[in-house]
């Protein structure tokens, strides 16, 4: 799915006649139609993720790839490569012939390294802009907290948060009553 940021844009430009937000409603409905045994990979690519709402949709398959494959693909091997680079490498590896051989010869992470090596990674400035944007997303914030060792909110913290929300609602109601 190219330019997927358009689906979740904060405000769609009036010049865009393609109605990109239609997928925002339809995609979850379509995903519910798949069964757990269906193997689906939906990859969204974006040149400007910072133009979309800060939301991260994460759909995990029932059968995760083995730990070694996941680590190999997500660590230094893919450092500096965009999602589009990874999609291109996948397309180069998963030819019709290779797909027919999957039953006899399962994929291994090392098959993706030569196609990635032929692609120039993104520049550091671009990478920093994306990292800054990602740090503002819910998943980025969650990862930052986990890195600091804060993975669970204490019972006291939950109670304080609930009280703060309640106070905020009461302030909002008071403002609305004053405006009337």
TrEMBL record:
Region (Disordered): 1-21, 144-180
InterPro entries: N-DRC_Component
Biased composition (Basic residues): 155-180
Species lineage: Eukaryota, Metazoa, Echinodermata, Eleutherozoa, Echinozoa
Organism: Stichopus japonicus
Name of this chain's protein: Putative IQ and AAA domain-containing protein 1
């Amino acid at each position: 799915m190219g330019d997927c940021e358009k689906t979740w844009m904060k405000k769609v430009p009036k010049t865009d006649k393609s109605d990109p937000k239609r997928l925002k409603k339809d995609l979850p409905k379509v995903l519910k139609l798949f069964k757990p045994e269906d193997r689906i990979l939906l990859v969204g690519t974006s040149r400007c993720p910072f133009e979309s709402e800060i939301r991260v949709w994460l759909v995990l398959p029932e059968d995760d790839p083995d730990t070694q494959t996941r680590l190999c693909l997500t660590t230094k091997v893919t450092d500096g490569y965009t999602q589009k680079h990874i999609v291109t490498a996948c397309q180069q590896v998963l030819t019709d012939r290779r797909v027919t051989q999957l039953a006899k010869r399962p994929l291994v992470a090392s098959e993706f390294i030569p196609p990635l090596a032929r692609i120039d990674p993104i520049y550091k400035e671009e990478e920093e802009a994306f990292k800054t944007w990602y740090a503002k997303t819910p998943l980025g914030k969650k990862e930052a907290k986990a890195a600091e060792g804060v993975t669970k909110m204490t019972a006291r913290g939950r109670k304080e948060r609930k009280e703060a929300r309640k106070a905020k609602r009461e302030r909002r109601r008071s403002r609305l009553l004053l405006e009337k």
